[in-house]
Fold:
Amino acid sequence: MACEFAALTTHDRPAILRHLLRLGTDDRVLRFGTAAPDEAVVNYCGRWNFARDIVEGAWDEGRIVGVVHLPVYDSHDDLVGELGVSVEAESRQRHIATRLAARTLERARKRGLVRVYIHFLTRNRPMMRLAGRFTTDIALDHDEAQATIRLPAPVPQAGVAAARPAGPAAC
Ligand SMILES: CC(C)(COP(=O)(O)OP(=O)(O)OC[C@H]1O[C@@H](n2cnc3c(N)ncnc32)[C@H](O)[C@@H]1OP(=O)(O)O)[C@@H](O)C(=O)NCCC(=O)NCCS
Structure:
């Protein structure tokens, strides 16, 4: 079934949490950098600032199957963000993460962010491919990778192509 994509708000926090808590141990290592226990995941999600951050979700049959959380912060004089993404195991390889990332980057561009970073483990092949759709600037440091996506300045009446991935991303 096709899923629906939407901006998420603080009201969606319980559904987001259910999604995050369904992630298995290795997925938590990939997403959080550690095999975070449930309590740590609850605390982490409780700190999301929906007024400032960008949060996008994919819904399927009433539950969230994928989430992007992009904390937004100042870096010197620049507004930047750091993208974290997860898609439930049963819904992968349907380009859900790619579409979530594209929507997030477009919102980030409109908000005036100049850069978005993605940190992931070099063994994370889906993330390597996903990041490669949006940037060629991927720095490797042993087990870790950092992708830097530079966003064009928001231009009135500009099209939405800037942050879109190179190819189709049907869910
Ligand atoms: C990483 C993750 C979000 C990808 O979600 P997804 O919805 O399956 O990703 P997509 O379907 O958009 O695929 C992205 C790319 O990875 C490729 N890919 C997906 N699964 C793959 C796999 N197991 N092996 C190799 N490539 C894979 C896809 O083909 C696609 O590449 P393409 O655009 O060239 O076809 C998901 O695997 C996940 O939640 N993992 C655990 C958490 C995590 O790793 N988070 C990242 C930390 S920021």
Q: What stands out?
A: The longest strand covers residues 63-70. Residues 166-171 have pLDDT under 50 and may be disordered.
